[in-house]
């Protein structure tokens, strides 16, 4: 891989017509990856920290962009419930079959709803929410479109954004290439994972894009397993 340049190719999972066992196995695999490599934990810690600072305990609406099979929202909802934080959740994904999978695997979770929408479409409208989260998704935007996206959502009463993303690194690429052989994940997840690392932003690139998106109050922290958590507070 070339660490200096973001790769500009699609993953197999980007095919919004994908369905069947191949899709379901890959969505299950992504849930496994999110659990093993800390995405669930890091995302939840960031949400809990924000809720604690703002003293939020009820009527919080959290939207997950690119929710896939819904594993992050299921984990997050359980953790917040244990902390006596009452929240409602909306997961959005562009593949109708992914949303079907998410609904099927989210039983008795009346606080979680799932919607089908093409997030990358210029006509996409974000539901009003307190916290907007996204994991391993924003690299689907090019730099300018992500900056424009941040500008677009600022009038929507979104108070806080949390991006949980990998950062581009040749070490991450080669370690995942080795580790994926040992993990109980699908072949598509293995191949797409390597592509995703090459498509990812560096910390410096993401900082520049956030500033271009007219967001001044933000922090990006590097975490274990080549992850970065970007937290953005939007002007009210």
Describe this entry's structure for a reader.
This is Methyltransferase domain-containing protein. This protein is α/β, with parallel strands linked by helices and 236 residues long. The chain has one domain (12-233): Vaccinia Virus protein VP39 (Rossmann fold, 3-Layer(aba) Sandwich). It is 42% helix and 19% strand. The protein contains eight helices and seven strands. Strands 3-2-1-4-5-7-6 form a seven-stranded mixed beta sheet, with helices on both faces. Helix 6 packs antiparallel against helix 7 (187-199). The termini are far apart.
Name the shape in a single word: globular
Number of strands: 7
Known CATH architecture: 3-Layer(aba) Sandwich
Low-confidence stretches: none
CATH topology: Rossmann fold
Query: Quick one: CATH class?
Result: Alpha Beta
First-to-last CA distance:
41 Å
Q: Number of helical runs? A: 8
- Biggest sheet: strands side by side, in what order? 3-2-1-4-5-7-6
Strand content: 15-25%
Major β-sheet annotation? 7 strands, mixed
Helix proportion range: 40-55%
- Give the SSE string: HHEHEHEEHEHHHEE
Mean pLDDT over all positions: 95
């Amino acid at each position: 891989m070339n660490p200096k340049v973001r790769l500009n190719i699609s993953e197999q999972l980007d095919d919004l017509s994908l369905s069947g066992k191949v899709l379901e196995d890959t969505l299950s695999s992504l849930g496994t990856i999110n659990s093993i490599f800390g995405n669930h934990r890091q995302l939840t810690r960031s949400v809990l920290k924000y809720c604690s600072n703002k003293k939020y305990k009820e009527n919080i609406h959290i939207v997950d962009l690119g929710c896939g099979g819904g594993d992050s929202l299921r984990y997050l909802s359980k953790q917040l419930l244990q902390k006596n934080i009452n929240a409602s959740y909306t997961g959005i994904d562009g593949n109708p079959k992914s949303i079907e999978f998410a609904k099927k695997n989210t039983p008795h979770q009346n606080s979680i709803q799932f919607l089908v929408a093409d997030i990358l479409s210029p006509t996409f409208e974000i539901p009003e929410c307190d916290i907007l989260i996204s994991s391993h998704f924003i690299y689907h935007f090019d730099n300018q479109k992500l900056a424009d996206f941040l500008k677009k959502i600022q009038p929507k009463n979104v108070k806080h954004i949390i991006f949980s993303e990998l950062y581009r690194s040749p070490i991450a690429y080669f370690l995942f290439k080795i580790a994926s052989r040992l993990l109980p994940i699908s072949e598509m997840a293995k191949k797409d994972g390597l592509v995703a690392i090459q498509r990812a932003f560096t910390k410096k690139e993401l900082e520049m894009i956030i500033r271009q998106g007219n967001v001044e109050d933000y922090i990006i922290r590097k975490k274990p397993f080549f992850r970065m958590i970007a937290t953005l507070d939007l002007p009210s």
